[in-house]
TrEMBL record:
Organism name: Nothobranchius furzeri (Turquoise killifish)
Name by which UniProt lists this protein: Nucleoporin 93
Region (Disordered): 1-24
Top-level taxon of the source organism: Eukaryota
Organism placement in taxonomy: Eukaryota, Metazoa, Chordata, Craniata, Vertebrata
Composition bias type Basic and acidic residues, residue spans: 10-24
Length: 24
């Protein structure tokens, strides 16, 4: 995720990192 995690284009990368923008 490069900041724009809301679009979830890199779910694999976001899965390793903690939900920053996904917790809207």
């Amino acid at each position: 995720s490069r900041g724009q995690s809301l679009q979830r284009e890199c779910s694999s990368d976001d899965a390793e990192r903690t939900p920053e923008v996904h917790q809207l």
